[in-house]
Amino acid sequence: MDARTRKILFAVIESYIGIAAPVGSRYISKRYGFGISSATIRNTMSDLEELGFLSQPYASAGRVPTGRAYRFFVESLLDCGMSENSNLLSMLYDKSTDSRASFDDFLSAISRLMSDCSHYMGVVLSRTAESSILRKIEFYTYKENMIVAILLTQYGIVRHMIVESSSRLTQKDMNEISRYLNDEFAGSTLRDIKKSLLENMAEEQEKCETLKEKANSLCNKVFSSINADIFISGVSELINLPDFDDIKKIKELSKAIDDKNMIINLLDKILQSEGVQVFVGDDPLLDEKALSLVASTFYEKGRPFGVLGLIGPQRMDYANAISIVSTSAAFLSRQLEHI
User: Fold this and answer.
1) Can you give the pLDDT at residue 51?
2) Alpha carbons 155 and 254: distance in angstroms, whole number
3) 3-class SS at 228?
4) Which PANTHER family match (predicted)?
5) pLDDT tens digits, residue range 86-119?
6) Is the Cβ–Cβ distance between 191 and 224 less than 8 Å?
7) Element (H or E) spanning 138, and its range?
8) How far apart are CA 183 and CA 136, in angstroms?
9) Would you put residue 53 in left (φ > 0), alpha (ψ -120 to 50) or beta?
């Protein structure tokens, strides 16, 4: 593609992102002033349509970019590199003061900040909870048949949850169970602990209910609930965009968002990738709903820890979205270096 054709294509894409309406040659001529006639621009746009970069919704209308055009545009943005979003960075620092005590709240806050800065849907997936290494686990009686479990991982991240116990256990029992589990499993990954507990459960089920069996049963409930953590913000921001201007589109979009497993599976594909990844209709969830995803892996001391990103219409402001995602992922990775 020659330089002039590329300029006109990018002008159409940027204009369509801004006005959410088919773009005509006269609009491009007046707004960008390339020093060429409207007729020349129109002919170039016609050539781009034949090449599959533009489409015409109906006769006499202007053109709109295709998925192929967006992908070409995004490649150019990624090749140029993106600057840090200083405004977002300042807000992230403000939210990070209590990340050690409330890491889940911090991840939720990041998804909200990304959404607020972009007006798209912010998502954060912490997929590697199972890869975290247990430092210590403690149990406390709470209410009748309810127990509070507190887990401390190798790098200081605290997780707490309330589980129901089928056995009546005193705090003395809880202390003994905590000591047994810490002696048995401290230094192991949560994934290995879950596997070991399942094996222990199978061995113990033929025996009478010993304290060890109670410990395995209780701990199995705790660790079976530790899977992917996903934080989603800005659904209303996404639905209010002109791209979803009828009730049928809104219902379809809401249904897709409610199925969190679909989003988890989509983000999971990115976990081992480096740098910002952009998907324009490259997945059934995205393609059917005319959505795009801009996402990046973030790291815990060099290990992939999770994925964060923005989901928006294909007519999304990719430059801004890439900057927001890149800034957020780099910041979160730096924070995890010091936890």
Assistant:
1) 94
2) 37
3) coil
4) HEAT-INDUCIBLE TRANSCRIPTION REPRESSOR HRCA
5) 888 888 887 776 544 467 788 888 999 999 999 9
6) no
7) strand 134-141
8) 9
9) alpha
**What tokens does 284 get?**
């059934």
Alpha carbons 8 and 210: distance in angstroms, whole number: 75
Would you state the structure tokens that stand for residue 75, as one six-digit string? Answer: 């490649």
pLDDT in tens, 244-259: 777 777 777 777 777 6
Pairwise CA distance, residues 59 & 120, whole Å: 31
- Among positive and negative, which fits the CA dihedral 296, 308, 77, 302? negative
* pLDDT for res 112: 92
**pLDDT at residue 157, rounded to an integer:** 58
* Residues in CB range of 193: below 8 A, 6 or more apart: 134, 185, 219, 223
Report d(CA 259, CA 263) in Å as an integer.
7
Q: Nearest 10 degrees: CA dihedral of 322, 326, 332, 333?
A: 150
DSSP category for residue 317 = -
CB 84 within 8 A of CB 327: yes
Q: Are 254 and 239 in contact (CB under 8 A)?
A: yes
Beta-bridged to residue 298, according to DSSP, are: 306
Residue by residue, DSSP assigns 296-312 as EEEEETTEEEEEEEEEE
Phi, psi of 45 (to 5 degrees): -65, -35
pTM over 0.85: no
Helix, strand, coil: what percent of the chain each, to 5?
A: 55, 20, 25
pLDDT at residue 201, as a whole number: 53
The answer to whether the CB of 1 falls within 8 A of the CB of 9 is yes
Enumerate the H helices of 207-268 as residue ranges.
Answer: 211-224, 235-239, 247-258, 260-268
Map tokens 């199972």 to a residue.
130
DSSP state of 104: H
The length of the chain is 339
Measured between alpha carbons, how far is 28 from 5 in angstroms, rounded to an integer? 13
H or E segment at 185? Answer: helix 171-185
Which residue shows structure tokens 């943005």? 77
